Amino acid sequence: MLYEYLAPLAEQYSVLNLFSYITFRSGGALATAFLICALIGEPLINWLRARQGKGQPIRDLSLEAQMSKQGTPTMGGFLIWIGLFVSTLLWADLHNPYVWTVMFVTVCFAMLGFLDDYAKVTKQSTDGVSAGARLGVEFLVAGVACAFIMGLHGAHTPLGHAEWGALNPLAEMIAQLAPATSVAPNPQSFAGGVAIPFVNDYFLPLGFGFIAFGMLVIVGAANAVNFTDGLDGLAIVPTIFAGMAYAFIAYLTGNFVFAEYLGIQFTPGAGELAVVLSALMGAGMGFLWYNTFPAKVFMGDTGSLGLGGMLGVVAVAVKHEFALVVIGFLFVLEAMSVMLQIGWFKITRKLTGEGKRIFKMAPLHHHFQKDGWPETRVVVRFWILSALFALAGLATLKLR
Asked: Residue ranges of the domains in the chain?
């Protein structure tokens, strides 16, 4: 909003030229989101507490101090989303289709998480929306977003290749939404291609299989963050680090000079996602203000599903899907611990009649709690690992 109104006035008032810079608007988005969350956090938490009564149902995991969290309100993800959305509307270029695609996925996943949280609170049960129904909606939303992103990527390229002929109508239609970013100087920036790590200027052509691949990335990221959200402050800080890493990547991929120097995919218009991700960082820090141990509020699925979905769709939009495995490796570990635990239990029960476990408890953070680690030790050490993973992910940009 500020960009649309103030940037055109730069010829008259040179100071307003600052609003044309993504870096300046990213800083403004971060600060605005943090201040909004910090200011409205206490009233919103009190409002949630008054309406939820007993708060989020807590499963008895036989963990020290776990049941002491009974009564803590959930759906704190709303605090994140208020800060992020208001800040994005103020500072982002609202004519950029990538911004709205990311917002679409984020809102849909957040609302799905809200329905899950609402079911748990009203029923006072740990069972919310059925897993099948939730996954079905997630894949549907992700599929729509990936089809649109594929069209955007196609609009950036001269689709003269025969294999992309069927995409022309969609690409031409989407190009009208963003005429300023409808041409890319790099002819290898083609729709349906997936960048291969450590390889320069090569994209694995998946065709329309790109949509299925992107769906897996988005849904996988959403549920991986959801698995990680189990201790005070555990999920939000790795999300902030991942958002920071992808803000850099978005800025670099949206700048032809930097993209050419690094040998990475140039994606016109994707740089604007740095503003959105900066708003995410600011909102995340504002939420952490109230979510740090002992938490006054839980983000719930309202927060975790939306956050994971947002990271996933950004990774698809900037054509750095595989980088998410490194940047968000903590989320990968948490999700893998659950899958391995369940899979091994079922296999051993079928073979021996008695199911065995790999971990003392899954997700992984509960394993360390069972091993005697205090909650704060688990959280802080996982934060440190997430920072290292984010830096490692950024380092891969130059390893080509």
From this structure: 23-40+74-325
Query: How large is the angle between the packed helices 236-253 and 300-317, nearest 10 degrees?
Result: 20
Distance from C-alpha of 332 to C-alpha of 227, rounded to nearest angstrom: 10
Q: Which residue has the tokens 């996982």?
A: 382
- Count Cα neighbours of 310 within 13 Å in the Cβ-side half-sphere: 33
The candidate with the shortest Cα–Cα distance to 307, out of 110, 44, 23, is: 110
Q: What whole-number distance in Å separates Cα of residue 147 and Cα of residue 149?
A: 5
Is the peptide bond prior to 179 cis by the omega test (within 30 degrees of 0)?
no
Burial code (b: 16+ CB inside 10 Å, e: under 16) for 191-222 equals bbbbbeeeeeeebeebeeebbebbbebbbbbb
Reported as a single tens digit per residue, the pLDDT across 191-229 is: 677 887 777 767 787 888 899 999 999 999 999 999 999
248 vs 277: CA distance, rounded Å: 9
pLDDT digits (tens, 9 = 90+) for 56-104: 666 656 666 666 677 789 999 999 999 999 999 999 999 999 999 999 9
